[in-house]
Amino acid sequence: MLISGFLEALFNGISIGAVLLIAALGLAIVFGLMGVINMAHGELMMLGAYTTFVIQNGCKQLGGIWFESYIFLALITAFILTATVGLILEQGIIRYLYGRPLETLLATWGVSLILQQFVRSVNWVLIIGIALFSLLFFGGLWFLKRRFMQMRQWMIGVILFLSLGVAVATGKFLSETYKLAVTQPWFGAQNLDVSAPSWLQNGISLGGVQLPYARLFIIGLTIICVGGVYLFLQQSRWGLRIRAVTQNRSMSACLGIPTQKVDAITFALGSGLAGIAGCAISLLGSVGPNTGQNYIVDAFMVVVVGGVGNLAGSVVASLAIGITTYLIGSETISRLLTGIPILADLFKFFATTTMAKVMVFAMIMAFLQWKPAGIFPQKGRTVDV
After folding, report:
1. Which of 8-12, 29-33, 130-134 has the lowest mean pLDDT?
2. Three-class SS state of 212
3. For residue 385, what pLDDT is reported?
4. 2-118+190-375: CATH class
5. What separation in angstroms does the CA of 39 have from each of 94, 102, 110, 161?
C-alpha cells in the first residue's frame, strides 16, 4: 500500500513537473536565450487558455468528431495567436529595451496588467475600436512614408489623434445604438470551465496507480514540445542563427545574420509555446484572468534553477520541483519518515500545497547559494558578456 501510494505520488509529481516545464519552455527561450524578463509570459498562457475555451465552445456546437478533436485545433490556434501577440509585443516594445532587463521587467509587467484587464472587459465595441484604430493609424503611417521620405513628429501626432478620435467616436456610437448587444463582455472576471474530450476524461490503472489520460496527454505534449524546440535550435538554419546571436550578437551582425529578425522569431516562438502551455493547463482547471499568475513564478524558478538558456536544465529542474512539491504537499515524505519522528513532524507541518511551495522556495534559495548559475551553468563567451 505504501509503495503504490508512493508511485502514485511520484506520477502526480512528474505530471506537475511536466506542466511546469511546458509553462517554462517558452520562458526558457525568451529569458534564457534573449535575456528578456517577460512578466507577461503568464498572460500569454492565459490567452492560450481562453483560446482553448473559445475553440471548445465552437466545436461543441458542431458536436461529434469536432468536439472530440477540438484540442488539436486549439493547440494550433493558441500557438498562432500568442505567437502573433508576442511578435507585436517584441516589435512595439521589447526591441527598444534589449540589454536593459529591468526596463523589460517593468514594461512587460505593464503589458500583463493590460492583458488581464483586456480579457475582463473585451467586447465587440472594444474589438472594433482597436481594429479601426490600427487600420487608420498604421495605414496612415504607411501612406505618409510613401509620400514623404521623412515624416515629421507632428504628422505622427496628428495621425494618432485622428485615429484615436475616430475609434472612440465609433465605439460610443455603437454602444449607444446597440446597447448591451455589443457592450456585454465576452468572458468577464469569473473563471470559466473547459471540458476535455471524452477520451481524455478517464484514466488507466497500472499496478494500482491511477493515471489520468489528461495528465498523460500533457506529459506527451511536453515531450513533443521539448523535442521540437531542441531539433529547431540544433538542426534548423534559424536555430543556428539564434544560437549564434545568443553567443555573440555583434559578430553575428558582421557576418550578415539579420539580428532583429532573429530576435522577433525567437520571441514569437517563446510566446507561441506559452499559448500551448495555456491550452494544456486549461485541461486541469478553470480559466480566468489570473490563470497565468499561478504559473509565472514557478516558471521563472525552473529556468533559474536549471541554468539560464539550458533546455536540459529546465527539464531536470521542472521534474525536481514538481516531484518535490507534490511529495511534500501530499504527506508522502512524512509517511516515509515515520521512523524518524523529528523529520516526520517537520515534513507533516509543510504537508499542504501552500506550505510545500514555501519549503521548496527555501530549498531553492539554499541551492542557489551553492550553485548560483543553476544546475547547468552557461559556458562560453556569453558568461563574460
Report:
1. 29-33
2. strand
3. 42
4. mainly alpha
5. 12, 11, 8, 30
